[in-house]
Amino acid sequence: MNPEPFLQLDRLIHEKGRLAIMSLLAASPSLLYTELRDTLHMTDGNATAHLRTLLEAGYIAVTKSLEGGRAATSYSLTATGRRAFAGYVGLLEQIVAQTRRPAA
Asked: Are 37 and 27 in contact (CB under 8 A)?
């Protein structure tokens, strides 16, 4: 088995909470903070920490707006985040493919 794909996995994305956030955002144009937090059953502190890490990496963008007179914060993947997530998924696919090959 070639260990290279394992070594190339993006450690920012690989963490369980951030992988879940990236996966949700990859499937949606944008999501409200409360939607992300509640869907993933995260605490405010946990969600905020993971979102901050992804924001600092340039993987996600934040938009603040007013909805029904209330402040709303939404998140979406940036082009960089989309590329990083696609690369991450591609490496996972390589790893899975390796496990399906018969041993030589």
From this structure: no
Residue spans of the domains in the chain: they are: 4-96
Is pTM beyond 0.70? Reply is yes
Residues 6+ apart with CB under 8 A from 82: 26
Domain covering 4-96, topology: Arc Repressor Mutant, subunit A (1.10.10)
**Cβ distance 6 to 36 under 8 Å?**
no
Per-residue pLDDT of the chain (104 residues; tens, 9 = 90+): 777 878 889 999 999 999 999 999 999 999 999 999 999 999 999 999 999 999 999 999 999 999 888 999 999 999 999 999 999 999 999 989 988 876 65
